[in-house]
Amino acid sequence: MSLLNKFKLIIANSFIIKILAIPIFFFRIFRINNYRVLCSNFVGKGYGDSPKYISEELAKDNNYEIIWICKNINDKFPSYVKPVKIYSLKYFYYIATSKFWIFNTRIPVYYVKRKKQVYIQTWHGCLAFKKIEFDVEDKLDNNYVKNAVKDTNYTNLMVSNSSFCNDLYKRAFRYSGEIICNGTPRNDLLVNRTDLSIRSKVCNVLHISKNNKIILYAPTFRAHYDKNPYDINFDDVIKVLNKKYHDTYSVIIRMHPGIKNPDSLISNYNNYINANNYDDIQELILACDLLITDYSSTMFEAMIANKPVIIYANDIEKYNKDRGSYFDINDLPFPISYNNKDLYKLLLNTKMEDICNGYDNFKESIGLKESGKSSISIKEYMDERIK
Q: What is the mean pLDDT of the chain?
């Protein structure tokens, strides 16, 4: 892109931001509703992630009005949630009049926060393999960096699940405010594991026989695709597992929500169940019998649920050059395969129950603090802020 075109793009983006901020300023004539909560899951992806589990806790006493940003107003929401379509007039009204904002990503750049509003950042990957935010500032777009600084300055509370995460927020987010380190709200489900209906729900929605074993494949986002990282031969994986365990297997594929064309990237696969539109990956993790991933934070969440995890890392060298990582992949408590041959051999020679044996030591090394009561802690914080 030429220098002139870059300049034109900057001017155009600046103009759009100012236009979108106008209705927010206008609706500031209305008072802030102390019990109104504006929630976002990847700015319109549907009802899921940590904001979902905080909302479920808030709904128990009927005091809170829960507004949910969505791109599709026909998405399924519980009765206590009011969906609002992004960029509608109501959307801008709720931005200006909600006491609380609860987001799992950075807020959009055009948001303008009032003094008495409270911004709670739950982030979507407390435990991260790949380096993020200001730890890779040289890899980030300048506009993103500017908005990240503004976002951090707006933030009143961040939600953590470990000593590792506390340090990450302070360094990579340049955040010096309040942190509640009592677990991740979306992981309350994985810690408590009391709702046996979740597996039945997943099987019903995805049309899986309840007697089948479930393999969940959940790879992460990549900025570049020089090599196809999604080349697992799941037909052969199932043959290997059938031979060893004599069970019937179903493969669920759930790509990272940041990928814009997930279906096209997995079009080479056969005999899999597409779960890209399934909002809550925590439910998929809880329902699965084995997680296969690459560098996604789902590996750590499956660990929290005590599920076997196998890493498939056929592009690890390229991936590390792009972003770098917080852990040496060999120090993680998960067996690693670098190609299909490695994967088959690993499946044949490894007992699923043995994979989980190294989890406790790793949890201790990162200072993991998943209490199963994170959502309760956030609600208590919100109740106190209203007082």
A: 90
